[in-house]
Amino acid sequence: DSKPSESTPDIEICIVIPGQHDVRELADLCCRSFYGEHQWWSSLLNPISGMQRVILFEKVLADLSNRIWKHQSEGCGSLQLAINKLTGEAIGFIDVSLTLYDITSC
Asked: Which domain of life, per UniProt (predicted)?
């Protein structure tokens, strides 16, 4: 018995270069992607895991803020954010970097 496949609705996306104003949404997207959707009650049942999640979120937030600043100031690579045109929600993010090693700067 074969089940009909579920189809996902077509969405239109636009690609933008993220700025510092996007950092919190990007950090949320990254944390949800790596650690799953946060359930409010899980912090009540396990406060330590809630604190760990807050600490991880703050580290991701700082890292993304630094990446955006570096890409804007040094221009080495490209950050791109995919946004759902209908909802405005961030749905994807890539960081393509080019780091040059300069032996004289060591």
From this structure: Eukaryota
φ, ψ dihedrals at 48, nearest 5°: -65, -40
CB burial readout 16-41, b (16+ within 10 A) else e: eebeeebbebbbebbbeeeeeeeeee
Can you say whether the dihedral through the CA atoms of 43, 47, 48, 54 is positive or negative? Answer: positive
Tell me the two tokens of residue 44.
Answer: 């009540």
* Order of strands across the sheet that contains 77-84: 13-16, 77-84, 90-97
Single pTM value for the model: 0.71
Contact 22, 90 (CB under 8 A): yes
- Write the pLDDT tens digit of every residue in 61-96: 999 999 898 888 877 778 899 999 999 989 999 988
